[in-house]
């Protein structure tokens, strides 16, 4: 298929459909009719030789072939936009809509108190913040960036580590009065441990402890499996079992006596916070601005 202006225009239409999530919204954003959007996508599909979008009355989603194509062309389209902006002296302009995928624990505990400052700094930007239990597919879901705890999955996404923080093992005083206090990591096998699923992979997180250079993996179990950090915190405070949290998230509760830190002589797993985005080449200014802002929050939470 010859690469000419019409092909680029059709690719631009496909990008608008993916980012907006519907033909109607893409048409509104591009200033053309919905039927014009449909024809442009149809011409692109005919040229490529495969169906790129699955269309229903309620939703539009990329096919597997469409996802692979979009993952390859999206960095190029973004790069063209950035190159044009740079040539026009507007490479630092932060505007438009920024769709961000985060987990609820990070959003409420770290991000939410600072959002007003971010929006004041970038008045031409609309922030679409979605809290999701799982990472999902950033490309097909139309997200510009995700900020998540845990090791990123193997994928074409670009990952940038923003934070590495220690974990603590805790329980409510009511649970410890009833079931006793574990003295070593091995004792956890006899306790109800609240199991957390990774928001990156959906798998149950392992419990590892280190002391004097030796790492021990503990086979924990419990009747409660969760994907949401706030639900886990509420359950732990209510005496449902022993849990592990990022130290920064429960320090105040430990000082107040609402939670008790366990196994203080052992070093638990560390939690890494990553920014994930689809394009390695010239990420959009709005994506860079958000990453820089989150980094500044982590460096100085009170700032």
Account of the protein in words:
Keywords: DNA-binding, Transcription, Transcription regulation. This is HTH-type transcriptional regulator DmlR. It comes from Achromobacter deleyi. InterPro entries: LysR-type_TF_proteobact-type, LysR_HTH_N, LysR_subst-bd, WH-like_DNA-bd_sf, WH_DNA-bd_sf. Belongs to the LysR transcriptional regulatory family. The protein is of the alpha+beta class and 303 residues long. The protein folds into 3 domains: 5-66, Winged helix-like DNA-binding domain superfamily/Winged helix DNA-binding domain (Arc Repressor Mutant, subunit A, Orthogonal Bundle), CATH 1.10.10; 96-164 and 272-299, Periplasmic binding protein-like II (D-Maltodextrin-Binding Protein, domain 2, 3-Layer(aba) Sandwich), CATH 3.40.190.10; 165-270, Periplasmic binding protein-like II (D-Maltodextrin-Binding Protein, domain 2, 3-Layer(aba) Sandwich), CATH 3.40.190. Helix content is 40%, strand content 23%. The chain is built from 11 helices and 14 strands. The chain has helices at 5-20, 23-30, 34-48, 64-87, 104-111, 115-121, 138-141, 173-179, 229-237, 247-255, 285-299, and strands at 53-55, 60-62, 96-102, 125-131, 145-149, 158-171, 195-196, 207-211, 214-218, 225-226, 243-246, 260-262, 267-268, 270-277. Strands 3, 4, 5, 6, 11, 12 and 14 form a 7-stranded mixed β-sheet that branches. Helix 1 (5-20) crosses helix 2 (23-30) and helix 2 packs across helix 3 (34-48). It is elongated.
